[in-house]
Design a protein that fits this description.
The protein has 18 helices and no strands. By secondary structure, the protein is mostly helical. It has a domain of 109 residues: Tetratricopeptide repeat domain (Serine Threonine Protein Phosphatase 5, Tetratricopeptide repeat, Alpha Horseshoe), CATH 1.25.40.
């Protein structure tokens, strides 16, 4: 289906190094455990650090930062606390503060592979790929078994366009941890980008075997099938994503492309409308809907959707070209 916007999920999943004592695998139980520990031993830096780690695990970064700061007030030379505080700042996109803490951690323990990996992660999030790769290389030299460093190195290489090298690093991360689904997922992303669709399908399937509820891996598997022209297989995967997470907007766009490619334009319009409903600020959704209308000869509706896309993205080439084509057809 021409004019479609591919909604392939390309989300780098960064591995964090967080020091915590896991007496219970459930975050809520851990939260109760360490809150109680803080109440009983408020002057111990480690308990504040561990409580902060639990808050980080729950995504409560403001609470985590508060606890890490208390811990550092009690013991400013605790490397793990600086590391965790830096990661929490990075999650909040407070990159200046993150770099300061992660560098402080390295100054306290220069031979910490994990500390260098986390500094590399911060640089990666900032788009400073060369700085990131330098830190990942140091992390690997300090600990050749550091899975996170290989994985993050692979992401940095991928994001900087060095795809063959990214494959090598991601394969090494899989060698160290073969049962980690995100490595297989991101290796699949690189293969997809390189046009190696069979390899991408294999890695996405492996990721799903390890984590059957991964909507990203299943959506990407469907996208690979779609690009291979295997429309029934793609439709099957996209529908599974909807079963797992019916509010996942991207999958409706991809399913609409499948229907359009199969000539099922009414069904395509229906799911494209659902994509617009769930993600009304995505210009691509309006373009897809507009193109489906055009295929049905509904020119007025097509123009309306392309104009909506341009309101969101005034420089959108697909919308401009679509309107130009309609204008030329009307002239002729």
């Amino acid at each position: 289906m021409r004019g479609k916007t591919q909604n392939l999920i390309l989300l780098p999943i960064i591995v964090f190094f967080i020091i915590a004592i896991h007496r219970n695998s459930a975050w809520n139980d851990a939260l109760n455990l360490w809150q109680d520990a803080v109440n009983k031993s408020p002057k111990k830096a480690r308990v504040h650090t561990n409580l902060g780690a639990v808050y980080s695990g729950k995504g409560l970064y403001d609470d985590a930062i508060r606890e890490y700061k208390i811990a550092l007030g009690l013991n400013p030379n605790y490397m793990e606390t600086h590391t965790n505080l830096g990661v929490a700042y990075a999650e909040k996109r407070m990159m200046g503060e993150a770099l300061a803490e992660l560098k402080a951690a390295i100054s306290l323990k220069p031979d910490s592979s994990e500390a260098h990996d986390n500094l590399g992660f911060a640089y990666l999030r900032m788009g400073k790929f060369e700085n990131a790769m330098k830190e990942f290389q140091i992390a690997i030299e300090l600990n050749p078994e550091n899975y996170a460093a290989y994985y993050n190195y692979g992401l940095a290489l991928r994001d900087s366009g060095r795809l063959d090298e990214a494959v090598d690093k991601l394969k090494l991360s899989i060698y160290i941890k073969p049962d980690e689904p995100k490595s297989h997922f991101d290796l699949g992303v690189v293969y997809y980008t390189k046009g190696l669709l069979d390899d991408a399908v294999r890695e996405y399937k492996t990721a799903l075997a390890l984590n059957p509820n991964s909507i990203d891996a299943r959506n990407n598997l469907g996208a690979a099938y779609l690009k291979k022209g295997l429309y029934d297989d793609a439709e099957k995967e996209f529908k599974k994503v909807i079963e797992i997470r019916p509010d996942f907007a991207s999958v409706y766009g991809n399913l609409g492309v499948v229907y359009g490619s199969k000539g099922m334009l009414d069904e395509a319009i229906k799911v494209f409308k659902k994509a617009v409903e769930l993600e009304p600020k995505s210009a691509g959704n309006y373009i897809n809907l507009g193109f489906a209308y055009k295929q049905k000869g509904m020119i007025k509706e097509t123009i309306e959707e392309y104009k909506k896309a341009l309101m969101l993205d005034p420089d959108n080439i697909e919308a401009k070209q679509g309107l130009d084509e309609i204008a030329k057809e009307n002239v002729n």
